[in-house]
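User: Hey, my collaborator sent me this sequence without any context and asked if I could get a structure. I don't really work with proteins. Can you help?
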Amino acid sequence: MPPAQRKPRPRSYDPAKVRAAVTAQLAHVREAAAGLDEAQLALPTRLGECTVRELIAHIALGVGLVARLIEESAPPAREITAVEWVITPAGAEAGAGGADTALIPLLDGVADRFAALAAATPPDRLLAAPSGAIRLDDFLVTRCVELAVHTDDLAAALGTEIRYDRQALANATRLLADALAAKAPGGSVEVRIPPFAVVQCVAGPRHTRGTPPNVVETDPLTWLRLATGRTDWATALDAAAISASGERADISAQLPLVE
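Assistant: No problem. I've predicted the 3D structure and written it out in structure-token form, which is a compact way to encode the shape of the chain:
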């Protein structure tokens, strides 16, 4: 009888580095928001009817949710991991700010509260997040996903580049890669997102040595867009943003992971 397939261990993250990454990426969003005029704040985004102003407010409130949940009682609920948070459907975590939201004071206030509470709270403290009870250190990694994806949304709406904190982008890339491996477990396809992540996924013959027969490779931002439905497999292939080799290398059926 073949040995039982061992469930992969969750990836570990350094809580201090993740906190620093959240702080740094929020600061990059603030830097981009500081110079915007009213016409730019009213621009549409690729998020339905959400404007640039509302998107920036949503980014702030997504980080602000950390402090809000820390201040609430620990939940008597089933604990989930960061990967489960990604692949579990949930309602909106934080609403968008209204038309009169003062963005820079909002961003500064969120940053201050985050710095004060996140560092002072044990990383294993359970929070009552929308998808279920989740450890603070896991929830902080999900904030990197939110920040990285919405920074890309903001840059697309403004037609400009916004800086990425390397650790925040790395955390987001790795968590979404691990979510793919959890959603489509197996070892027949190797997905490479250099320089941050490599995972194996999709049921089928498992590769053990040499060059894998089925390989998908892309860059971190394209991966974030694929994983969250900002682009689709065919579009990314046509743009040569993905390379896919092998008869099982089409993973479009597994995407997006979260919308």
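In plain terms: The chain has a mean pLDDT of 90. You can pass these tokens on to your collaborator as they are.
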